[in-house]
Design a protein that fits this description.
The chain has 475 residues and is of the alpha/beta class. The chain contains 14 helices and 15 strands.
Amino acid sequence: MKIQKLQYAVLVLMLMMTLSKVQGQTSDEKYRKPIVETIKKIEAIFKVTVEDKRKLLDGKELNYADWRIQQGNLEVSLTNVLAPFDLTFYKEADSTYTIRKFEYHKVSVSKGQDRLDYLSGLYDTAEEWETRKAELKKCIYTAIGLDKAPPTPKSKPILTPKRNYGNYTVENIALEILPGVYVAGSMYKPYPLKGKHPIILTPDGHFFDERYRKDEQYRCAMLAKMGAIVVGYDLFAWGESKLQFPVETHQNSIAETVEVLSGIRILDYLSKLKEADPTRVGVTGGSGGGSHTMFLAAIDDRVKVSAPVVMVSSYFSGGCPCESGRPIHLCGNGTNNAEIASMMAPKPLLIVSDGGDWTKDVPEVEFPFIQRTYGFYNKKEMVKNAHFAKEGHDFGVSKRMALYPFMAEHLGLNLNKVKNAKGVIDESDCVMEAKEKLLVFGDNGERLPANALKDIDKLYEMFGEKNHKEHEVKK
């Protein structure tokens, strides 16, 4: 009995202390209180559940806390109380919200849909969209920093001996795209090489084994067998680029600049080959390579066919600075990858998505928005979505099987070249090379040119910029 009385007394004391604390909240104390208490009040007012699974609210107090609640508007209220702590919320269900850290490149699905609704209200005709597209194109080009890029060095490409695999060849290539800055890749060509052939660029993504992995080799080999000249190339500070810049510098915003410029200058080189047809150019890549597929297609009119894989999203702009380190998504007072992908209209566009990442909502959210843009030209049939609801974030075989016919149709490739006796597309006779065979500069980088730049500060200086990220680290 004494224990029960003691427990009761403690509860009464706690209640009195709480009441005292509430009563003591005046303008003298700036109405300061723990944010968890304000969140509880929001839950009661709006009859919702707000979950803090990561304990992000622990120990945080907020000035004028309850005054930030706007009755009648739940999401404004949540924003008002969370924003001072660089926190945000995700709507998980009709009455359930989750608190998360603010990430500039990622919002909730509902906010992505809101953004698309807003963008749809900006243009209703092809003429209005062309005006918007021109504004975006100019801004993206400048935001990336391409307007400040030094001229392409006049050095010759570095090429390794060709390996002949019967109906296609492979040789490794490095181009000096900036003074002392080389982009490395592998170039696949049809064999025998007669006449003019389409060009396909395939920027690498953030996958294990980099551009040496099997899915990229399959993709490049198959497209070459079908009749295209194909180059798969490294990200910045990724693959052989790490011989010049350590992988940590991949987190610098200049990575986005160099990667977009790599695509442009590789295309410059390929377009001058006597066996290339510069009027038939395609680009495809997955993940981060999907981002750069969209970016290149958006700003370079030479691209005639685009196939971004597992990247088109209205609420995710890429978690890496090489995709969102430059303010391209702030262009036009705010854009997103769905609108950037739409900049291909009315040219052929294949969007490959899956159910295991930020592209899971493409069929219901992003694709209708993009189709609407194509509708301005009466060309809805030129945009396709290959969605794999039970798959995850990769460039797997089913996604490649969707890619091959699309590229064949719109670039004039011969799909029959990659079909077996049963008439089925078959990758089995593609030769998978060891990483060592795909290197340009040797097993230990011994063939890296003597002028190779290894100072990222000087790389920034080429564009008239300073490396603020490095300076912050030094502080």
